[in-house]
């Protein structure tokens, strides 16, 4: 499981690198892999929300705004859960 978590972080980092150098399709591929692994690993909400926002930014660059909004809303939903849990503690 440690290796899987490390691989998820690595995919996320590679996605961010490819985004920075303008290779959006490569970035999307790595970030989708990262998201899939994070979901399987049940990673914390902040991590998953961050990946959703990275995917959102790339989809927006590719002018796939409908899909981008879906990822933004997923991130918002995850962060709302986190915030409400903190309010109850």
- Global morphology: flat
Main β-sheet, in a few words? none
pLDDT below 50 for ≥5 consecutive residues: which ranges? none
- Provide the succession of SSEs: HHHH
Estimated helix fraction: over 70%
Measured distance between first and last alpha carbons: 29 Å
What's the tally of helices? 4
Percentage of β-strand residues: under 5%
Mean pLDDT: 94
Radius of gyration: 13 Å
Write up this protein.
The relative contact order is 0.13. α1 runs antiparallel to α2, α2 runs antiparallel to α3 and α3 (45-61) runs antiparallel to α4. The protein is an all-alpha fold. The protein is 88% helix and 0% strand. The termini are far apart.
Q: Nutshell version of this structure?
A:
This protein is mainly alpha-helical and 89 residues long. Helices cover 88% and strands 0% of the residues.
Question: Which features characterize this protein?
Answer:
4 helices; mainly alpha
Task: Compile the SSE list and pairings.
Blueprint: H1 2-20, H2 24-41, H3 45-61, H4 65-88
Helix pairs in contact: 1-2, 2-3, 3-4
């Amino acid at each position: 499981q440690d290796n899987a978590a490390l691989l998820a972080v690595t995919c996320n980092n590679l996605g961010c690198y490819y985004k920075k150098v303008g290779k959006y399709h490569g970035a999307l591929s790595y970030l989708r892999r990262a998201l899939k692994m994070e979901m399987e690993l049940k990673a914390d909400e902040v991590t998953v929300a961050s990946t959703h926002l990275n995917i959102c930014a790339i989809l927006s660059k590719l002018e796939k705004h409908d899909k981008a909004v879906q990822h933004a809303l997923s991130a918002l939903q995850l962060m709302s859960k986190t915030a409400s849990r903190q309010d109850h503690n």
